[in-house]
Amino acid sequence: MRLAKYLAHAGVASRRASEEIVAAGRVTVEGIKVTDPAFDVSDGSLVRVDGRLLSGPETRVVYMLNKPLGVLSTASDTHGRPTVVELLGAGEARLYPVGRLDGQTTGLILLTNDGELANRLTHPRFEVPKTYRARVGGGPVTALALSALRDGVELEDGPTAPAEVRELGPQELEITIREGRNRQVRRMCEHVGHPVLELVRVSFGPLRLEGLETGEYRRLSEAELGSLHAL
Known about the structure:
The chain is α+β, with helices and mostly antiparallel strands. The protein has seven helices and 15 strands. Strands 5, 6, 7, 8, 11, 12, 13, 14 and 15 form a nine-stranded mixed β-sheet that branches. Strands 2-1-3-4 form a four-stranded antiparallel β-sheet. Helix 1 (3-9) packs across helix 2 (15-23). The radius of gyration is 20 Å and the shape is elongated.
């Protein structure tokens, strides 16, 4: 198994972040520093990160959380603000969020120790759909604004892909995107003159938020994990 993959499966970090950890010279295998992420290791290899011996691949788990307002989508925060990982408490695995929701966005977020799956769910080339419900300002949403969102809008970091948009009310939209740019839905709505007042993610791929109150979480079933891997 490639060393970076081994680290990801051991819950150290995502595959990409594990590659950076290896390249930075923070990993030893059988006491020898290794900087090649493709270095081949076995389950029985003595692998250390920053001197800490890894016990091998963890059982891979995925949790779904209904993120509350003001909670950060990160594993820790230097300013002591609440994080999604803290909401789950100490468990059997070292978890990290799959993608991010900004502090003012609520709803469905996944946490896992499976770096490979996390990468596949967030990498743009896999186009995993994510659906949001947005309450917007700027008066009733116009047909012109809806058309622009559906065609794609020009943001400062380039044009967005077309979004699926459905009106739920005069100032309430359901928006599905297949990209993962920073604050993308907020920036898209702002661009067409309808700033977001409230935003909640209601689905991620085949998973729906139903059944989870704010702040609640649950471990995904084998069937749900299978549906994610099938993406």
